[in-house]
Every structure is written in structure tokens, then in C-alpha cells.
Amino acid sequence: MQHPILVIGHRHGIGRAIAEQLCHAGQTVLGVSREAVDYQHSHLTSLTSSAEDLTAEHLPEALSGVVYAPGSINLKPFKSLKPADFLADFEVNALGAARILQLAEKALKAGQGSVLLFSTVAVSQGMPFHASIAMAKGAVEGLTRSLAAEWAPHVRVNCIAPSLTDTPLAAKLLGNEARAAAAAERHPLKRVGTVADIAEIACTLLRSTWISGEVMGVNGGMGRLRTA
Predict the structure, then answer these.
(1) Residue 25 — left, alpha, or beta (φ > 0 → left; ψ -120 to 50 → alpha)?
(2) Please, which residues bridge with residue 218 across strands?
(3) What is the C-alpha separation between 59 and 8, in angstroms, rounded?
């Protein structure tokens, strides 16, 4: 991939793992995060900015890809959710992705690029207390398929739907041995996913020239298998 790949949210978690794996493979990465990152690489250029403040002037003329990694985990009983909760999840997950892709459309088409977005296994499976995040991520899946059709054949657009992954965002849900063990037990493969698991598939989707419009489950079998 000869042009830079834009990674939004490259400071930690899945976004960082993807940025690092791309850099180690020799890919130029333009990373954007609200706070300064604590790592460097010769192939990485980091911008400290919110996604909302990013402008076309920050982008190169052509991009080989865009990764939108910001997310949220806002798990509450449905009756406890306020309009502000729904709006906050939609803002971070769906509207934020749409804004970045509108900004990057010209550069993506110039570079015949690839887009990677993130959903959740909770969209397809239905899980208690996930109403707000599942609504927001469901919108991301719709955006994935719509743009894959609209931008074909020049730009590919795909999405990964992980289950609970060991990231700083999930720290409260995996904060002690009992919680971590329970989370692992819910997966058919009996462990919690890692950022390396996600980054491996992410980089494959970014490189592929024959996959578009797909929502790929990377969730230890949780999306398809029933083993108990």
C-alpha cells in the first residue's frame, strides 16, 4: 500500500495495535488521537487532535486506507438510559466515523483505498444491557454496506465485529480475575480476545483487494457457535 493509512484513535487499544502492526510491516501511518501517544516509529506520524477538529489540510492527497477505532462501552438497563446516553454512543461510534469518511473520501478514491470500521457482536446476537451501543454499532454496519456499494469499485469498506476484547476501554469489565474468567467462559474458545487478534484481521482486510461490504466477526466463536 503505497499511500499512508489514516488511523483514528491510535493512542491505545485496538487502534494502537493496528497502527503498530502496519508500521512494523513498513506501511506509512498517519495517526490521530486526542492525547499524545507514548510510542514512536519511523513510519508513524502522529497528530494530537480530536477527530472533530481534523480538516482536509491534515490529510495527504491520497490515502491507502482509513481505520476508525474510537468506541464506547455504555452498558445499562434500558430503563436507565437517557437520550444523552444514546446520543453520546451514536456520536462516538457512527457519526464520528461518517465525519471522518466524508473528509477522507477524495483521498481514499485517489489512493484506491480501504476503510475499516468497528461494530460489536452484540448487534447480531442481542445481549442484555447493550441497547445503546448495539443501536450505534448497528448504524456502523449500515454505513459499511452503504458506502461499500456507493464507493465501489474505487474504495473497499469493511467492518470488524469483535466481542469483549482486552483493552483499556474494557478494563472495568475485566478488572478482576473472576470477571475475566467469566468473560472467557462465555466464548466458545474460552478466552477473551486480544488487540493482536483484532489487528491481525484488520491488516488483512486493509490489504485485501477482493473483500468489500463485509462485517466480519472476530469474537472467539461467540457470533456463530453455541457450545453449551
Answers:
(1) alpha
(2) 162
(3) 12
Structural domain contains residue 187: no
Q: Give ∠ CA 55-64-21 in degrees, rounded to 5.
A: 100
Q: Is 13 left (phi over 0), alpha (psi -120 to 50) or beta?
A: left
**pLDDT tens digits, 151-164:** 999 999 999 999 99
Kindly calculate the radius of gyration of the chain based on its CA atoms and give it in whole angstroms. 17
Element counts in the chain: helices (H) and strands (E): 7, 7
The mean pLDDT value for 54-67 works out to 96
Element (H, E) at 112: none
Residue 228 has pLDDT above 80, yes or no: no
CA nearest 195: which of 16, 41, 5? 16
Instruction: Report the amino acid identity of residue 196.
Output: A
Q: Cell numbers 483521498 label which residue?
A: 107
In a domain, 99, yes or no: yes
Summarize pLDDT for 96-129 with one digit per residue, the tens.
999 999 999 999 999 999 999 999 999 999 999 9
Total domains in the fold of the chain: 1
